[in-house]
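Can't paste images in this forum, so I'm doing it all in text. The chain is below; anyone willing to post the predicted structure tokens underneath?
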Amino acid sequence: MDFSGRLDTLIATLAENPWSYQVDGHVDADNEHGIPHRTTYTCTLSTADGEAWTLDDLVMS
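Text version of the structure:
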């Protein structure tokens, strides 16, 4: 399984203090038949203290 790298992943700051980010990327993996497949994702992450992070939303297609 390979995740998109820093140059292929979009990160947008949605809010500051508390911090919230939207991340758009992809994951490449082989299915059960060994055929490569790419899944794209968009997730929203947030933190109030910079230490504990919460996955607020995840959409995969």
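Strands lie at 2-3, 10-15, 19-30, 36-47, 54-60. The mean pLDDT is 95.
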